[in-house]
Amino acid sequence: MSSFPKSTVLGYPRIGPRRELKRALESYWGGRSPRVELDRVGAELRALTWRRLAELGLEGLPSNTFSLYDQVLDTAVLLGAVPARYRDAEDPYFAMARGTEGLAPLRMTKWFDTNYHYIVPEIGPDTVFKLDASKPLGEVREARGLGHETRPVVVGPVTFLLLGSALDRLGDVLGCYEELLTALAAEGVAWVQFDEPALVGDRTPEELAAVRTAYERLGAVSGRPSLFVASYFGDLGESLPVLAGTPVEAIGIDLVRGSAPVADLTGKTVVAGVVSGRDVWRTSPGRALAALGAVRASRVVVSTSCSLLHVPYTIDDEPSLEPALRGRLAFAEEKVAEVVALAGADFRGSVPAGPSVALPGPVTFDERGPYEVRAAAQAAHLRLPALPTTTIGSFPQTGELRAARAAVASGALSQTGYERRVEEEIERVIRVQERLGLDVLVHGEPERNDMVQYFAEHLDGFAVTRNGWVQSYGSRCTRPPILHGDVSRPEPITVRWATYAQSLTDKPVKGMLTGPVTIVAWSFVRDDLPLRDVVFQVAAAVREEVRDLESAGVSIIQVDEPALRELLPLRRAAQADYLEWAVAAYRRATSGAADRTQIHTHLCYSDADQILAAIDGLDADVTTIESARSGARILSEVSSFGRGLGPGVYDIHSPRVPGAAEVEGLLRRTVGVLPVERVWVNPDCGLKTRTYEEVEASLANVVEATRRVRAELQA
Ligand SMILES: Nc1nc2c(c(=O)[nH]1)N[C@@H](CNc1ccc(C(=O)N[C@@H](CCC(=O)N[C@@H](CCC(=O)N[C@@H](CCC(=O)O)C(=O)O)C(=O)O)C(=O)O)cc1)CN2
Ligand SMILES: [Zn+2]
């Protein structure tokens, strides 16, 4: 058995330093380039990654970390878990990821507590697992052709099945994993990495037994490669002794989120994640060496805390960042260099650092009146019809708008010219909504590159990047802002666009803000303050914006919190505390509004179930949530809120235009469950990724469906 190389990373970005993969994918999907071109770009990106990692001196190179869409979807394909309805599609892989005309895609949801989304495996009792190892084998061979020996990375059986809610199929799936090990051994592969992030969550005794069964069976495969089970995003807790009791040779432990295990792991290799894959800060050598020194194992390998998928490629691509800040930063390439440097240091006998102390957060206090009082004041002021229709905020982000922003950055377009362009777009959005007959209008958010980055650009304490793209799902990326100092709002941010929009119409226009939890969740955040203190600073800035919008005459203000669920700690023991301060921060941001100002909030993930009480606690006058795909279940659960509710009447993630009858059906179901006077009618989420053609057709049907249901109410 070969020993584990002394330095490694658990995974690497794959979208390309200039988003080459995004462009190749979108060009292929749009029919503008052939499949061979997409495959050529993929091969080039893989070669670039291996070459770079080797140049930086990393010894243990991973493979199969590339993906054309998502590594969980790749695992489903590896195991043959392709639902029958996709098998005849022209391209089953992308059909599962994105759907086709007439075929809805598989569900997509957040990867643990990150802003990365994976495709949820659909596994039923009839799923026939059958190994197709062409991708991992292909990457191993491809790397070898380039002179690199690699360690293929595959989502492990327990995590894969838990994500697919099908742990009962363990016995069947293990057959495929056994075959995979045999195939990799035949290829001369020395080590294989199974990612098991699900093991850092609370696991039942049955689930722990599944871990034991899985790795005992895989450990018994004769002639197999050495097994490395990687955990990340937290502590293994009760899963660690279970794993340690199986024949796996190496265990990956997140020493940034988690702490060094007290257990003696003699006999095992520990792949110690001391360089964070979740932030962009340089690693403190003292802290890292102390963490490494505290591990008791036969061999300690230096690694990242998780895949580097969640950070941008390199700070070399950010020449305009302030030098003082730059010096504190490490993106993927710089983190690899840190791993290599730490692996070259002698860390035995280093002393553990003292634990950091959390400060108590500010308490909430409410100035707003009780809901009944607010609702009456708002009704008198707004005079809305029953079943008011509205949208979630953004309208299509056209290529023209993006190009205009790029032109400002390059100096080809003046700031005034750009602002005029934004105003034209706002006017277009207002006219479209008036023509459609919507009741509560939005300005469409054309001035925003992103609902978080835009605010970061206008707040002190944040820096933004030029090329710091991180994959969010498929070809979609974000540039998470860097929250590095105390946050404050030098001047109003959205007021001029909101008042401009309101000046064009007699219908109420909603002001549109992003909430403090979401701004922080979708940024890279300083680590010298407790997260909640940072969130409260952002809440104070949002609160000022709410007040200024109100003073400018805006009578409905929406404060979005789509990431409220995402930051929920993976362990139940920590959840109540998080939810308490997150809700308090939201109320801090919104409770400066007068009773007659209507506060809306928006959340758009189907797995809201676990945080319903917290959503209720936000105390928003109106809550719009995703529901078109999750169905009636969510309706009955939110019916107890006792305030306004807008369960989405159609899914905006697909280009499909819902028929009026279909929307009418959903709406009838909604008013069957919720008191009609509290129901709002809206799509599931913002419309920025759609085209005007799709949006106008869909919204026309929403308005028509609402008209039909209203007519009956009056009858
Ligand atoms: N931060 C964040 N997280 C989120 C969401 C969100 O809206 N924001 N929504 C959920 C789903 N996730 C999403 C993530 C990204 C996108 C998305 O559409 N991203 C855009 C980029 C948005 C952006 O930053 N746009 C910039 C830059 C656009 C650009 O590509 N510009 C060109 C130049 C312009 C041109 O000529 O086209 C370039 O830089 O090369 C702008 O509009 O200004 C993309 O990948 O295409 C959508 C949803 C959950 N997480
Ligand atoms: Zn949304």
From TrEMBL:
<keyword id="KW-0486">Methionine biosynthesis</keyword>
<dbReference type="InterPro" id="IPR013215">
    <property type="entry name" value="Cbl-indep_Met_Synth_N"/>
</dbReference>
<keyword id="KW-0808">Transferase</keyword>
<keyword id="KW-0479">Metal-binding</keyword>
<comment type="pathway">
    <text>Amino-acid biosynthesis; L-methionine biosynthesis via de novo pathway; L-methionine from L-homocysteine (MetE route): step 1/1.</text>
</comment>
<feature type="domain" description="Cobalamin-independent methionine synthase MetE N-terminal">
    <location>
        <begin position="7"/>
        <end position="296"/>
    </location>
</feature>
<dbReference type="InterPro" id="IPR002629">
    <property type="entry name" value="Met_Synth_C/arc"/>
</dbReference>
<keyword id="KW-0489">Methyltransferase</keyword>
<dbReference type="Pfam" id="PF01717">
    <property type="entry name" value="Meth_synt_2"/>
</dbReference>
<dbReference type="Pfam" id="PF08267">
    <property type="entry name" value="Meth_synt_1"/>
</dbReference>
<dbReference type="InterPro" id="IPR038071">
    <property type="entry name" value="UROD/MetE-like_sf"/>
</dbReference>
<keyword id="KW-0677">Repeat</keyword>
<keyword id="KW-0028">Amino-acid biosynthesis</keyword>
<dbReference type="GO" id="GO:0032259">
    <property type="term" value="P:methylation"/>
</dbReference>
<dbReference type="InterPro" id="IPR006276">
    <property type="entry name" value="Cobalamin-indep_Met_synthase"/>
</dbReference>
<protein>
    <recommendedName>
        <fullName>5-methyltetrahydropteroyltriglutamate--homocysteine S-methyltransferase</fullName>
        <ecNumber>2.1.1.14</ecNumber>
    </recommendedName>
</protein>
<comment type="similarity">
    <text>Belongs to the vitamin-B12 independent methionine synthase family.</text>
</comment>
<feature type="domain" description="Cobalamin-independent methionine synthase MetE C-terminal/archaeal">
    <location>
        <begin position="387"/>
        <end position="707"/>
    </location>
</feature>
<dbReference type="GO" id="GO:0003871">
    <property type="term" value="F:5-methyltetrahydropteroyltriglutamate-homocysteine S-methyltransferase activity"/>
</dbReference>
<keyword id="KW-0862">Zinc</keyword>
<comment type="function">
    <text>Catalyzes the transfer of a methyl group from 5-methyltetrahydrofolate to homocysteine resulting in methionine formation.</text>
</comment>
